[in-house]
Amino acid sequence: MASSKDAVVLDVDGHEVRVSNPEKPYFADKGVRKIDVVEYFVAVGEGILFALRDRPTTLERWPGGVFEGARISTRVDNTGDAFYQKRVPKNAPEWVPTAHITFPSGRTADEIAPDSVAV
Length: 119
Hints:
Layout: E1 8-12, E2 15-19, E3 25-27, E4 32-33, H1 34-52, E5 59-61, E6 83-85, E7 98-102, E8 108-112
Antiparallel strand pairs: 1-2, 3-4, 5-6, 7-8
Pfam family, one: LigD_Prim-Pol
Domain DNA ligase D polymerase: 34-116
EC number: 6.5.1.1
């Protein structure tokens, strides 16, 4: 986990949003860093919220960044470079809204249901 000195804190919609490892390459071949992606989403967030507001949302996580040949894990092969995170992260701030979902299998999960760009 990144130390606090490696993080930046942004004020987004009146919430403090901590971005760890802001200089981490996300699209290394294009020179795009994590903070660039965050700033882009803040800039276009209202448009994205038009589609996502208050709807359960699954995160597609790429911890090593996106690169040529990168692939997402599946149920059959969980050795990919990325994965889907259905559940709300344990360290999510209390102000992050959630929705309780029941899957056809009977399993349940609390998923993020964004209501602001800060989420």
